[in-house]
Amino acid sequence: HVLERRLRAAVDGGGLTLRYQPVVALPSGQVTGVEALARWHDEELGEISPDEFVPLAERTGLIVDLGRWVLRTACHEAARWPVVVAGPAASVAVNVSPVQLGQRDFVGDVVAALRASGLEPPRLCLEITETAAITDLASTAARLEELRRLGVRLALDDFGSGHSSLTLLRRLPVDLVKIDRSFVERVTTDTADAVLVRLVIEAAHSLGRRVCAEGVETLEQARQLVAMGCDSAQGWLFGRPADVPVLAGPTQGPA
Ligand code: G
Ligand code: G
Ligand code: MN
Ligand code: NA
């Protein structure tokens, strides 16, 4: 397959880049970290979306090398952001595919990326998508416990998009829950979604987890989330994925 061959070449030959989207604390709007997002620009095919190449990489096993590159690059770059703009504790979140998480040497890859970069473990956050965790809850929980012992942070990504969210919230040792964009999108217009978001925030807080809202696009959404006690947010309102992380100073708070 042509696309697969070209993706392999991009992974091996430096054809991938990372973009960083700011994560802000609520209600201050202060940037506390970023999420690293992989981008693939092919010379002939142009820009190919991760919605397309990540599933392809997962099907073909390329995700293992691709994911290792993302992890190493994100740690390396984050360790070099100037403290004056990023703050000493600025975090970098990396998406981890379930295929990667299931690899025997994944924990070793994380250790290696931290060592090679010099990044302090608490500055790295690994995002595990909710739907992935469901397949084998016991082994996912065990794997996350191993990672936790390294001192890195863990997040449950796309929360609410699956079917057993509350079980996962209880069973998985994550620090952070990221509420899926589909709920945030309707939080100011759909009463049922607003109820769900409020419940997720309360349940997460009761279990000692913090909550990040994804895909915040309007000030109205941000205000609603602040009123619900949401801890942090991400979305176009605060910043799009950019090549240089936008970490400068306090930004305009939503409240
Ligand atoms: O950046 P964008 O919204 O287009 O990303 C689309 C999807 O691709 C999201 O679900 C995102 O989590 C995923 N994605 C982006 N970068 C990575 C990556 O480095 N690794 C994995 N596993 N998924 C990624
Ligand atoms: O699944 P994950 O959370 O990793 O996906 C992140 C994706 O969401 C990225 O591809 C990013 O480009 C996209 N994204 C981030 N903020 C917004 C937003 O405010 N609106 C929309 N529509 N997409 C967003
Ligand atoms: Mn994510
Ligand atoms: Na998500």
Question: Summary?
Answer:
The protein has 255 residues and is an alpha/beta fold.
3D structure, described in words:
It is a single chain. The chain is of the alpha/beta class and 255 residues long. It has one domain: TIM Barrel (Alpha-Beta Barrel), CATH 3.20.20.450. Helices cover 45% and strands 22% of the residues. Strands 1-2-4-5-6-7-8-9 form an 8-stranded mixed β-barrel, surrounded by 4 helices. Bound molecules: guanosine-5'-monophosphate (G) (2 copies), manganese (II) ion (MN) and sodium ion. Manganese (II) ion (MN) binds next to loops.
Features:
alpha/beta; 255 residues; TIM Barrel; binds guanosine-5'-monophosphate; binds manganese (II) ion; 45% helix; binds sodium ion; 12 helices
The class by helix and strand makeup works out as: alpha/beta
Determine the CATH superfamily: EAL domain
Distance, first to last CA: 51 Å
Radius of gyration: 18 Å
The dominant shape is globular
> Given the structure, what is the number of helices?
12
Low-confidence stretches: 248-255
Oligomer: single chain
Helices and strands in order:
Elements: H1 2-13, E1 16-25, E2 31-42, E3 46-48, H2 50-60, H3 63-79, H4 83-86, E4 91-96, H5 98-101, H6 106-117, E5 124-129, H7 130-135, H8 137-149, E6 153-159, H9 165-171, E7 176-179, H10 181-184, H11 191-206, E8 210-213, H12 219-227, E9 232-234
Parallel strand pairs: 2-4, 4-5, 5-6, 6-7, 7-8, 8-9
Antiparallel strand pairs: 1-2, 1-9, 2-3
Helix pairs in contact: 3-6
Bound molecules: guanosine-5'-monophosphate (2 copies), manganese (II) ion and sodium ion.
